[in-house]
Specification:
CATH architecture of the largest domain: Sandwich
Distance between the termini: 124 Å
Radius of gyration: 34 Å
Shape: elongated
Low-confidence stretches: none
CATH superfamily of the largest domain: Immunoglobulins
Strand content: 25-35%
Number of domains: 2
Order of helices and strands: HEEEEEEEEEE
Structural class: mainly beta
CATH class of the largest domain: Mainly Beta
Number of strands: 10
CATH topology of the largest domain: Immunoglobulin-like
Length: 179
């Protein structure tokens, strides 16, 4: 009878299977990490008065400020901010992200294209960096092209057209008037 009891215990233990596994622990929330996609350190922002900054904070339950102004954070942690630019070639931004008492701050410096400042005391001026289009254009005969330039307020800008290129400030041999 003893053998039967031992065999029965052995059979019950073999059929019982493994004990149920404990419920898996929830995955830890991603770390709070501010990353800036644009502008990178090598980018030069071409805007003059305001620009976009965008990136991620790593998680969607975080709050973010850029220079103290609140920025919406999407559920995946992405953010986009519309920020004013100073009248300078460097724009400093302080980004602060916070979630449940955890705070991270990042300082970002954006380079900005230099703005044109008209010369003081001059009535007439032309911003020589504003000519558009630049480079060589090949157009079919009779085709027009729109030219743009930034000049003093109220100024009238006139252009001279010549069929042949010549050095600046020289008269055209063909028509004698373009200089």
């Amino acid at each position: 009878m003893r053998w039967v009891a031992v065999a029965l215990c052995f059979a019950l233990a073999a059929c019982a299977g493994a004990p149920p596994a404990a419920a898996p622990a929830p995955a830890p929330a991603p770390a709070l990490r501010i990353s800036v996609v644009y502008p990178k350190a090598t980018d030069v922002v071409q805007s003059r008065d305001s620009a976009f900054l965008f990136g991620s904070v790593g998680r969607g339950d975080a709050s973010l400020t850029v220079n103290g102004a609140a920025v919406a954070v999407h559920p995946n942690g992405a953010w986009i901010a519309w920020v004013p630019l100073p009248d300078d070639t460097i724009a400093p931004f302080r980004l602060v992200a916070t979630v449940r008492g955890d705070t991270q701050a990042v300082d970002v410096t954006a380079r900005i294209v230099a703005r044109f400042h008209p010369p003081a005391g001059r009535a007439a001026w032309i911003d020589t960096t504003s000519f558009a289009p630049l480079g060589v254009l090949a157009l079919p005969p009779g085709e027009g092209v729109r030219l743009a330039v930034r000049a003093a307020p109220g100024a009238t800008v006139r252009g001279a057209r010549c069929s042949k290129w010549r050095p600046p400030r020289t008269r055209c041999a063909r028509c004698g008037r373009c200089a």
